[in-house]
Design brief:
FAD binds at residues 126-128, 143, 145, 152-153, 194. This protein folds into 2 domains: 75-172, Translation factors (Elongation Factor Tu (Ef-tu), domain 3), CATH 2.40.30; 183-322, 3-Layer(aba) Sandwich (Rossmann fold), CATH 3.40.50. Helices cover 30% and strands 24% of the residues. The chain contains 9 helices and 12 strands. The strands form 2 sheets. Strands 4-3-6-1-2-5 form a 6-stranded antiparallel β-sheet, covered by helices on one side. Strands 10-9-8-7-11-12 form a 6-stranded parallel β-sheet, sandwiched between helices.
Length: 323
């Protein structure tokens, strides 16, 4: 029965089957088959090696950093483009030596900038936090507000495309990790938004980071609100996790946000309670804002004592970080 089933399965070739059944089958060499298999295997091996080598080379190239810290010293970068953001604020794009290089910054960290005025033997050095992504190849962006008698901001605003500026870093700030805190609050004034935006980018570009964020951002006028488009996009994309509150010293008539300065009453409403578990408050702005909100820091390595509104509201020193 089993033989009949096998026979029926070969019905389309019955005549050929009779012929082969009456003739002794010729022995066929397996050498060509082995050779073919060997060639295919070799080709696959070469392909895989090439792909792995290429991937490794690309990975190494992607990891090449402009700023490595330590004893590296100053790196001069050429100004590629300038964009006016407001009457006194510009975005400056500086290009890297190679278009495939990345900055080398992490979150949160900053860079030092330096130039030597023609009227002084002492160079001017100021820290800035780039607003471009740390993994952005080819360039970095600084957003700088021009302050009267501010030597570095005035120098930057006087620069032309093609001129160069010295940079050094990175300068490590707050060591951020995904989900390090359940809820963070960012209290910023003016260009103090730049390190806050660095944190925001890192949190919301990482699908594994579920941190909730509240931003309180003070400015003089509505036109002074830096990165407003980017902030609104984040708020619209993550409405359950990111909320921004804007305060203006000189609001227009149709303004619906806060007026005047960032007050104790406002912070009491929008901040998480001091007793909440695993929260952090970050502060960055002009000296007057530090003094009123959190107290000033002694140095980059010394946060100083917690004072001001945050202390009055019951927060402790470990819950606050001053950029």
């Amino acid at each position: 029965m089993f033989a009949r089933q096998i026979f029926r399965s070969f019905q389309p070739s019955r005549q050929s089957f009779r012929k082969y059944s009456s003739e002794a089958p010729k022995k066929r060499s397996l050498a060509p088959l082995y050779i073919s298999v060997g060639i295919v295997g070799l080709a696959i091996g070469v392909y895989r090696y090439t792909q792995q080598t290429s991937a490794t080379a690309n990975e190494q190239k992607e990891l090449e950093k402009v700023f490595t810290g330590g004893e590296q010293g100053w790196v001069d970068l050429k100004l590629r483009a300038i964009e006016d953001l407001s009457s006194n604020t510009k975005r400056f794009r500086f290009e890297f030596p190679d278009e495939d290089m990345i900055s080398g910054l992490n979150v949160a960290s900053a860079l030092l900038t330096k130039f030597k005025p023609s009227t002084s033997d002492k160079p001017v050095v100021r820290p800035y936090t780039p607003v471009s992504d740390e993994d952005q190849p080819g360039y970095l962006d600084l957003v700088v507000k021009r302050y009267p008698n501010g030597p570095m901001s005035e120098h930057l605003h006087s620069m032309n495309v093609g001129q160069r500026l010295d940079f050094k870093g990175p300068l490590p700030k707050y060591p951020w990790e995904p989900n390090k805190h359940k809820h963070i609050t960012l209290i910023a004034g003016g260009t103090g938004i730049t390190p806050m935006y660095q944190l925001l980018r890192s949190i919301f570009k990482n699908p594994e980071d579920k941190t909730k964020v509240t931003l309180v951002f003070g400015n003089v006028t509505e036109n002074d609100i830096l990165l407003k488009k980017e902030l609104q996009e984040l708020e619209n994309t993550y409405p359950q996790r990111f909320k921004a509150f804007y305060v203006l010293d000189k609001p227009p008539k149709e303004w619906t946000g806060g007026s005047g300065y960032i007050t104790k009453e406002l912070l009491k409403i929008v901040l998480p309670e001091p007793k909440e578990d695993n929260i952090k408050i970050f502060v960055c702005g002009p000296p007057g804002m530090y003094k009123a909100i959190s107290g000033t820091k002694v140095s980059p390595k010394d946060q100083g004592e917690l004072n001001g509104i945050l202390k009055e509201l019951g927060y402790d020193k470990d819950q606050v970080y001053k950029f």
